[in-house]
Amino acid sequence: MAISKELLSLLLLVFYLSSIASSSFSDPDSDSDLTNELVSLRSNSESGVIHLDDHGISKFLISSPTPRPYSILVFFDATQLHSKTELRLQELRREFGLVSATFLANNNGSDLNKIFFCEIEFSRSQSSFQRFGVNALPHVRLVTGSTSKLSDESGQMDQSDFARLAESMAEFVEQRTKLTVGPIQRPPFLSKAQISVIVALIVIATPFVIKRILKGETLLHDHRLWLSGAIFIYFFSVAGTMHNIIRKMPMFLQDRNDPNKLVFFYQGSGMQLGAEGFAVGFLYTVVGLLLAFVTNVLVRVRNLNVQRLVMLVALVVSSWAVKQVVYLDNWKTGYGIHAYWPSSWQ
């Protein structure tokens, strides 16, 4: 039987449409398949953070057409930069994991799969760093379902948002995605087993401690402990240690002109290194200890010649220490300190 051209054309059209439909329905990288794969990867992570590489970025972000049914919050990391403590990459990575774990604990249902927390490491994902245009760390980027270009920096987290660590990251996610992260759930400082051991040790040691307290044989009854503590607090105060802790000042810097040389004293009033504070604090402590020795110990010496000799040595050393402090202050700030003499002495 001959087949008409119209019937043949209709059969070819039906076959063509069915092939297109079957190919589209059999696509293994459909939205639901990608979401299910991300869910599977997330379940294998303790904190819910997915480790992605160049292949994962290409599969879940580049090859997947927009709009995607999910957003991805990416933490960019570099193992070789973990030694630079000023970047705080390891601390921020732990806080990022806390945000992910908190989101998983406080959400269920459809909202749970609307955002995934991922990280990529530089040594294994250099091309992804280039595609995102990341050239400085720390860096966190939100890629929403409508983001088509990875180089779009509109989803970048500001450096100021890292100030409050996990809390700031959670606020960033809630503001950008309208999802609820919830209060950050931090692990307890001590586990239940550790608390049980500490309580048992306290109970066992309590009778022995009470016995020593009644006899006056504890460290709190040792005057040498209080003397050492007073000296430490004095040095801690005059060395500017609190300033170094608050400002996180380094002990020394590397010389720009000679990388093999270290700079312990920075000339200029805008910054003070830790070594500077310790040096000046040591000089102050020397003067303070000599003054305490002269007023509390030397006065009990009966030999007058010994008193005079020690007093002379104390005056010379104290004068030298004060002179060094004045010299360092003048060298650093440029301000001079002039001695005052009574007019009758001139």
From TrEMBL:
Gene Ontology CC terms: oligosaccharyltransferase complex
Compartments (UniProt record): Endoplasmic reticulum membrane
Membrane-topology descriptor: Multi-pass membrane protein
Keyword flag Membrane: yes
One Pfam family from the record: OST3_OST6
Keywords, ordered alphabetically: Endoplasmic reticulum, Membrane, Signal, Transmembrane, Transmembrane helix
GO-annotated biological processes: protein N-linked glycosylation via asparagine
Span of the signal peptide: 1-26
Family matches, as Gene3D superfamilies: Glutaredoxin
Highest taxon in the source lineage: Eukaryota
Residues spanning the membrane: 195-214, 226-246, 278-299, 306-322
InterPro entries: OligosaccharylTrfase_OST3/OST6
SUBUNIT field: Component of the oligosaccharyltransferase (OST) complex.
Function: Subunit of the oligosaccharyl transferase (OST) complex that catalyzes the initial transfer of a defined glycan (Glc(3)Man(9)GlcNAc(2) in eukaryotes) from the lipid carrier dolichol-pyrophosphate to an asparagine residue within an Asn-X-Ser/Thr consensus motif in nascent polypeptide chains, the first step in protein N-glycosylation. N-glycosylation occurs cotranslationally and the complex associates with the Sec61 complex at the channel-forming translocon complex that mediates protein translocation across the endoplasmic reticulum (ER). All subunits are required for a maximal enzyme activity.
Family, similarity comment: Belongs to the OST3/OST6 family.
Protein name as it appears in the record: Dolichyl-diphosphooligosaccharide--protein glycosyltransferase subunit 3B
Organism from which the protein derives: Brassica oleracea var. oleracea
